[in-house]
Specification:
Elements (H helix, E strand, L loop, with lengths): L1 H21 L4 H7 L8 H12 L1 E5 L50 E4 L5 E5 L4
Antiparallel strand pairs: 1-3, 2-3
Helix pairs in contact: 1-3
Length: 127
């Protein structure tokens, strides 16, 4: 258990250091946090980077009886940018997972159908 915690702290520290050396957050973070992104700690930026790394848009044609929730059914995080709009689903590869209220704490993979497409937003489970 202690070993896992140490590994996690090391990884977060490494991500934080790389985010800090870059001096500008990932544009997907800025798209959701706006000017508040500059006030995020290195640990917060590292956690957001982990969320992005665990997220992937994958081609997965709709299957009969599929039960994946639609991405449009999720609320948009508009706390930092009032009126923030959902992504344009006509460009599924450009979906920003940080825009949506998604539980990144799950111990299983999550899948959300990107409305009207053969693509799914896959959130890999937390290790």
């Amino acid at each position: 258990m202690k070993r896992n915690i140490l590994i996690a702290l090391f990884l977060c520290g490494s991500l934080a250091a790389s985010a800090q050396s870059n001096n500008s957050p990932d544009p997907r973070i800025t798209a959701v946090y706006g000017t508040f992104a500059s006030k995020l700690s290195t640990e917060q930026l590292a956690w957001l980077q982990v969320k992005l790394q665990r997220s992937q848009v994958v081609l997965e044609p709709y299957a009969q009886g599929e039960t994946y929730p639609r991405l449009s059914s999720l609320k948009v995080v508009d706390k930092y940018i009032p009126g923030l709009q959902a992504d344009n689903f006509a460009q599924p590869q450009q979906v920003n997972p940080l825009k949506y209220v998604i539980s990144f704490q799950e111990q299983k993979d999550l899948r959300y159908r990107i409305d009207g497409t053969d693509y799914v937003l896959l959130i890999r489970k937390k290790n």
